[in-house]
Write a structure and sequence with these properties.
Number of helices: 8
Oligomer: single chain
Distance between the termini: 35 Å
Largest sheet: 7 strands, parallel
Shape: globular
């Protein structure tokens, strides 16, 4: 199959393309930097010509809610219209667990619009809601740091390894469109504050963490709001295993052979 990865140069997309190749398919890299713009549509039809399935992993460039909503709405409409014109048979969009609860998270507002558009259009689709990646707590803590301290939410997560997520995305894209929302997560429930502290410790980046529900990840996301449902796809790699592999990379620069896609993005 020819599988287009939209957002191919981004944090996740640049690791989806190698996963497509490992599965024996041909990746088609789509991004503005590569000449195809999902906002204006420029170069998009030509890039999608002959493509069987699309994996959409684009991300909004802004953290403001109105700008995130505008970006996801415009990009999704443009992309779906191009897919209809060239005959794409399956549209897979990466979404997020907790979407129905995180009413004050700007990014989630954009993703809700994206999901609605994908589900309402006539391009056969599958929405894959993923748990947060293993590196998310450290990324969030670093982003929120002020003067050596970061106020972080004590979220319960069931985080997923980046390599596991991209493999599932490819597997879904190769399969038949489900015209439904599916969930994917890791094997264990973890505490975001603990994950951030341990990851930053491995990286040698001291940061005092102050658990609080102040901020966009408010108390509406407490309890099981960010956890998967009983019928979610559960992937095998634990946070402990991911962290151990990260320590190997830190100590001698080797990426463990079995986790060639150790981290989708650097934790900071």
């Amino acid at each position: 199959m020819r599988i287009a990865v939209v957002g191919a140069t981004g944090r996740i997309g640049r690791h989806v393309c190698p996963a497509v190749e490992r599965a024996g398919h041909e990746p088609v890299r789509i991004s503005r930097a590569l000449g195809a713009d999902v906002l204006t549509g420029e170069g998009l039809d030509a890039a999608l010509n002959g493509v069987d399935a699309v994996i959409d992993v684009i991300n909004a460039p802004s953290r403001q809610e109105d700008e995130a909503v505008e970006f996801f709405a415009a990009a999704t409409r443009t992309l779906l219209a191009a897919e209809r014109r060239v005959g794409v048979r399956h549209h897979v969009v990466l979404s997020a667990l907790g979407l129905d609860h995180g009413r004050h998270v700007p990014h989630y507002a954009g993703k809700r619009i994206q999901e609605r558009l994908v589900s309402a259009k006539d391009v056969p689709s599958t929405v894959l809601r993923s748990a947060q990646l293993h590196d998310f707590p450290a990324i969030l803590a670093t982003r929120l740091a002020r003067g050596g301290t970061a106020e972080v939410p004590p979220l319960l997560l069931q985080p997923i390894a980046p390599a596991d997520l991209v493999d599932v995305l490819v597997e879904v894209a190769v399969g038949r469109p489900l015209r439904a929302v599916r969930e994917v997560a890791g094997p264990r429930t973890e505490d975001l504050v603990d994950m951030a502290r341990r990851t930053l410790g491995v990286l040698g980046r001291p940061l005092e963490l102050a658990p609080t529900w102040r901020g966009v990840f408010g108390a509406e996301l407490a309890g099981d709001a960010m956890l998967p449902s009983d019928d979610a796809r559960i992937c095998p790699t634990t946070f402990d295993r991911w962290l151990a592999d990260l320590r190997v990379v830190r100590d001698d620069g080797r990426v463990p052979r079995h986790r060639a896609q150790l981290a989708v993005g650097q934790p900071v």
